[in-house]
Write a structure and sequence with these properties.
The protein has five helices and five strands; from the N terminus they run H-E-H-E-H-E-E-H-E-H. The protein is α/β, with parallel strands linked by helices. The protein has a five-stranded parallel beta sheet. Strand 4 (about 85-90), helix 4 and strand 5 form a beta-alpha-beta unit. The longest helix has 12 residues, at about 15-25. The chain is globular, with a radius of gyration of 18 Å.
């Protein structure tokens, strides 16, 4: 009997060292709603959550404690109030939107350490985490 073709193994898996490097690189620029929620619940103060959506979206609902900084407005002037010594965790709508990446790229270009909260506000809500409006 001939072996079945596998779409999973059609391309060989990476060497474990290369795989570790790849995943650690991703973790250096990404976090997820579960980790953010956990740290906020524990009172961790080493990061600031930044909502890069439009002000109207922020007003309708956002992560508790998040600051509103629409990605289109990010500049040295609009980020002057952000702490340089803390990590910025940015989010936008969700995986169908690249505003978080745009905001993160601009913030990193201005010298901030930044991570994207993968899944954005959509995943935050789908996990049932608290939302603040106004």
């Amino acid at each position: 009997m001939a072996p079945k073709n596998s779409l999973v193994t059609q391309y060989p898996a990476a060497d474990p060292t290369d795989a570790a490097r790849h995943f650690l690189a991703r973790l250096s620029v990404e976090t997820d709603p579960s980790d953010v929620h956990h740290d906020l619940q524990q009172g961790v103060e080493t990061f600031v959550v930044v909502d890069v959506r439009a002000p109207e979206a922020f007003a309708k609902g956002h992560v508790p404690g998040a600051v509103s900084l629409p990605h289109r407005t990010i500049s040295s002037e609009t980020t002057a109030r952000l702490p340089q010594d803390k990590l910025l965790v940015v989010y936008a709508w969700g995986p169908h939107c690249n505003a978080a990446q745009k905001g993160a790229a601009k913030l990193a270009g201005l010298g901030f350490r930044v991570k994207e909260m993968i899944g954005g506000f959509q995943y935050w809500q789908s996990e049932g985490y608290p939302v603040v409006s106004g």
